[in-house]
Amino acid sequence: MKHSKALHRVCLLALCLCASQALADARLEARRHFRNGMSLIAKKEYDEGVAELEQAYAIKPHPNVLYNIARAYQDAGRTEKALDAYRRYMTSSPADAASVEATVAALEEKQRALDAAAAPEDKSSLPMPPPPASVQSQQQLATLLERLEKAIERAESVPASGSSAPSTYVPSALPQLGESSSADDGLVPYEERVVTASRRAQSSLEAPNATTVITAEDIRLSGAQTLPELLRRVPGADVMSLGVGSANVSLRGFNQRIANKVLVLVDGRTEYQDFLGLTLWSAIPIGLDEIERIEVIRGPGSALYGANAMLGVINIITQAPGSGPRARFNVTGGTGNSVAGSFLSHGNTGALRYRASVAYSQADKFSRDYGSNRPDIVLRDPDPDIGVRGARGTLSAVYTFSEDKQVGLSGGAYRFNTEIYPLGLLRNYYMDGLTAYAKGDVELGPLKLKTFWNHISGNAGPQYEPIGQRSLALELSSNLFNAELLFARSFQLAGEHQLNVGVEGRLKRVAWNYLGALREEIHAAAFVQDEWRLAEPLSLVASYRVDRHPLLDNGTPGLAHSPRVSALFRPWEGHAFRISAASAFREPTFLESYTRLLVPVQGVPGASGLTTGNTSLRPERLTAFELGWRGEFAEVGMDWDVALYQNRVKDLIALSNFERLPPGESYDPATGNYLIGRSRFVNEDSIYTARGAEAGITLAPIDGLGVKASFAFQTISSDLEEKEECGPCSQAPQLKLFGGVTYRTQTDLEFGVDVAFTSSTTWIEREPTASDPTRIELNSNPLGAYTIINARVGYTAVKDVVEVALTGSQLGGAHSQHPFGNRIERRVYATLTVTP
């Protein structure tokens, strides 16, 4: 029996390892075959080179691969095969269709001439000589023969490629990319493309910031259940989960409860909630299966995106309408009462393309803060075991009038229940709410108009409160209206320039009983960016943005300026060195500006601490310097990114220490509470300096094997505080490591495992003293290092139709990622995906 089991295991292993073909990172594998093919073609080994190009196209279709195949056959003098490849290329409706049609016409004439010359001569079947033709007929025949001879000469005059070095043929024109376009539709096949770094499609080698791209294939193979889980693979990303539905994400330090220094976008629409200054990750109304890719800009982005892009930008780009399956069903079940189901549909009718989705999900908390039998605690949360639950629906449509003229409309709603861990003395809150959005895009050549509306409303409050204590339950309604006009054009002036100019207006309205009356703010901004290709291999990028905020000048309207300058040096193909300097800022939130909140003191009935806002706050400021090297070795399927940086942060907004109030101000008649003291939002005097190094590498050395690894080291210091008293210094983990391996086979099996390590931290939090609850002090809470292990096994039961997967999450030891958070434990999920 033991021998039989061992034999079965050996057979299974052999089946996996000896598969005829396997795919890991499709882009890198296709690029490896493409580059090898072009190298062979340059050596005039046309058959072997074209075979490599065909394999690249089979892995990941790209129209320019067909163009290169056609040119290779044309250079080899194989007119018939060149014509076939050109015709395949033309089915993609390329922008250079007119010039390709002319080439095809010339080759067709040449082929007809060759066919005629090769036809055997059979004199026995020759007809009798015709009667003498008229002079006019003879002239017409002579003209026709002359035109045919000239066409043959034109076809034969096309130069053949040299053999000195590999080269990539590219069409003379390609359409520009929008934010939802495929990441691989650039001029060079399988080159990684980004749109977030410069607000236009470009190679990641040209990006002026350190960038990381997470593809749809990365998402699927990871088995991740949430967006923050995916971001652990980003070098320098600080991901902190306090519960199933509560996560905070920062870049290059400064993470906290209510992380507020990274701008999160979905197709360019902000998910930043201005009333509190956070991203509600569990309430973003899209599913992981709708995402085309996630672009992470690691570094300041205020020069293009304005407020709150202080430490970086995370742009979640969804699939373009009409680009996916007509129907896809996905069902997931797992431990912790985890249940999820979704339906996704793409379609098109003529010039109209659409994407629609509906979904439901829920999962229990990892743990509850209090037991059910506590006599001194009352439960306020209507669903105390639920960590996250929600139902959503979205619809996106695009109508294309012509190549550069289109209109897009999208919208969605999400009814959700989740948890939030606020600042200061406040602990775990529940939120039962609704988010909704509507978005419109108009593209008219170089002009683009983008508009959107964001809404969030609901009821929230502490999940647990002491019996007899005044409740902090709240009602919230927030609406944001935004319009942005963009203009882009390229021109020549002492080199090539790519100019982008934009103006923006925004209206914010927040009704929240923590703020008192309805609050309204009007914001405006303008930006300009010029990318100047001075001379090969040097290019310069200069950006500048000015934002108008109604309170920035000591409580009156003021301006925030955000410049950025970057230089890129590309001495060799596939390598780019960059140096940049930039400034960025975060604006005060509605809570920080307007709040007046009495926080009850636990264990002391009738006593509260007063927290107030401050309309004279200055924006938080960042000055950043960065050196970077991005490179690739496509022949072996490798690319990497290395960055060294220094960030100088000042005017951080935080709660002041509690100050005792004079006797005349120590009683609040509206609530009948005694006020133990007051704390208000202020700008800190300390200046913080963060220095760090980051590196990330992706490998696809052989078909089937994919390897990803990243490293980040960081230190933060203060000019006024010792490290043990400096929250930003001790709360940022010095070392973060990530490693992941995937293996895919044509035997329909997939394997993946990833490991993330985070070093120890010490969290400094405000807490009442044990001896006197009316005294509030800062306490140090050490937190040990932890390792997260996730694994996935997938099997395609019916090719392109039915797929099943088993995923293990948090397979390392149980741990906490914040002193006030849940103890995070292992969960296992099974997923069924059907694409009929």
TrEMBL record:
Localisation per UniProt entry: Cell outer membrane
Annotated stretches, region: Disordered: 113-135, 155-187
UniProt superkingdom: Bacteria
GO molecular function per UniProt: siderophore uptake transmembrane transporter activity
InterPro entries linked to this entry: Beta-barrel_TonB, Beta-barrel_TonB_sf, Plug_dom, Plug_dom_sf, TonB-dep_rcpt-like, TPR-like_helical_dom_sf, TPR_rpt
Pfam families, sorted: Plug (PF07715), TonB_dep_Rec_b-barrel (PF00593)
Bilayer topology annotation: Multi-pass membrane protein
Annotated Gene Ontology cellular component terms: cell outer membrane
Keyword field: Cell outer membrane, Membrane, Receptor, Signal, TonB box, TPR repeat, Transmembrane, Transmembrane beta strand, Transport
SUPFAM superfamilies the UniProt entry points to: Porins, TPR-like
Biased composition (Polar residues): 160-170
Keyword Transferase attached: no
GO biological process, one term: siderophore transmembrane transport
Chief location of this protein within or outside the cell: membrane
Family: Belongs to the TonB-dependent receptor family.
Protein name from the UniProt record: TonB-dependent receptor
Taxonomic source organism: Myxococcus stipitatus (strain DSM 14675 / JCM 12634 / Mx s8)
